Amino acid sequence: MFAATAETGRTVIAVLEPGDSVLEALAAACSRFAIEGAVIPVFLGAFTELAFIGAEEPPLDEDEPMTSVSIVRNCEGLGSGTVTAGPDGPQVHLHASVGAKGDRARATAGHVLRGTVQYPTEVVIIEILSPALSRRANDRARGIATLHIEGTAD
User: Fold this and answer.
1) Is the residue at 80 inside a domain?
2) Where does the chain have alpha helices with state H?
3) Nearest to 6 by CA among 149, 141, 154, 153
């Protein structure tokens, strides 16, 4: 475990509009305000579809990182995430839990790969001024890029 106290900056409230691409719109909001590190404590709305890392069937090895994609259409839900500086601008890491409207609100949760907004989606972005946040391959997490907090041992 590693941790640090964060110095926060601005709080940005964003509304993603119908048709917006979720991750691209969040990255654009961060770019607009020159935010390189942030937490997203509030992400709630309705989506035409969200693609998650996941599977419709149980994986052969539940401990291995998943590589398959699960798509949920016409869903509503909420999530949270982080923003780090990436090579091409802000990199959004978002997890969500949504219920499929046409399947008695059957829930799907996990890492969001992509998605499209169906109805306005409300988001709160809190800027982290320091320490710097980044993503690095983590051997302890089977090589998956995970959050790194500058100045902490990992």
Assistant:
1) yes
2) 22-32
3) 149
Q: Is residue 39 part of a domain?
A: yes
pTM greater than the 0.70 cutoff: yes
Report which DSSP code applies to 66: P
- pLDDT band for position 60 (50/70/90)? confident
62 domain residue, yes or no:
no
CATH (domain of 19): 3.30.1330.80
Whether the pLDDT of residue 98 is over 80: the answer is yes
Total domain count for the chain?
1
| 72 three-state secondary structure | strand
Burial class of residue 127 in the structure, from the number of CB atoms within 10 Å of its CB (0-12 exposed, 13-18 middle, 19+ buried): buried
Does residue 85 sit within a domain? yes
Q: How far apart are CA 46 and CA 52, in angstroms?
A: 15
Segment of 25-34, 64-73, 103-112, 139-148 carrying the highest mean pLDDT: 25-34
C-alpha 148: how far from its chain's center? 15
